[in-house]
Write a structure and sequence with these properties.
By secondary structure, the chain is α/β, with parallel strands linked by helices. About 40% of the residues lie in helices and about 15% in strands. It contains six helices and six strands; from the N terminus they run E-H-E-E-H-E-H-E-H-E-H-H. The structure holds S-adenosylmethionine.
């Protein structure tokens, strides 16, 4: 399932309700990991990824309490960060993305599309207001792309592909940064 949320408490509650016993979780944007300790004990592995110095400081402390918790510091828009996580796990059951609920939806969608395409989660949970608005307002009207999809947390049309192609997808971020 792909869940879209905005309210921070609702996002955390959704994580709690979605993560099952022995799941492998990739959480993007855990901040200081305030919520992470509520679900980590029941997971096989949790990989927390954040670019913030304060995240590294706090979650490194939590790593001492939870042997199944790994912190990766990096910008999730960079292919190098994907590679660091791939060294720890090749798949995940739940992919959680909170880069800040008001972040530009195109950035959050791209991060979700790339990361979910690589790790092929059973469930994705995204916190973003703009994506929520888009999903509610959009209607697919072209029969040629209306079809049933199996329930999963990643897109059938953009699943795991060869590393070079993934790198090209990530490189588009670089283009956007140059544009501004
Ligand atoms: C609103 S906070 C997340 C709060 C957290 N979900 C919670 O429940 O406490 C957003 C986090 O996303 C991280 N973030 C934003 N952009 C990022 C990026 N490009 N790469 C990695 N982390 C990013 C920030 O450093 C911050 O810690």
């Amino acid at each position: 399932m792909i869940s879209i949320t905005y309210d921070a408490e609702f996002y955390r509650k959704t994580l709690n309700e979605t993560i099952r016993e022995n799941d492998t979780v990739v959480e993007i944007g855990p901040h200081v990991g305030e919520y992470i300790k509520n679900y980590v004990p029941r997971t096989k592995l949790t990989v927390a990824v954040d670019k913030a110095v304060q995240s590294e400081k706090s979650i490194k402390v939590l790593e001492n309490d939870f042997k199944n918790l790994r912190f990766v510091r990096g910008d999730v828009r960079m292919f190098e960060t994907v590679k660091l996580v791939l060294e720890i796990t090749k798949n995940c059951d739940v992919l959680c993305i909170d880069m800040g609920g008001g972040r530009y939806p195109d950035t959050v969608f791209k991060v979700w599309a790339v990361w979910s395409g690589i790790f092929e989660p059973r469930d994705s949970i995204i916190r973003n207001r703009g994506i929520g608005e888009f999903v509610q307002r959009a209607k697919v009207i072209d029969d040629s792309i209306i079809q049933p999809f199996e329930d999963s947390g990643w897109m059938k049309t953009w699943g795991r592909t060869v590393p070079y192609e993934l790198k090209k997808q990530m490189d588009e971020f670089d283009f956007w940064i140059k544009v501004k």
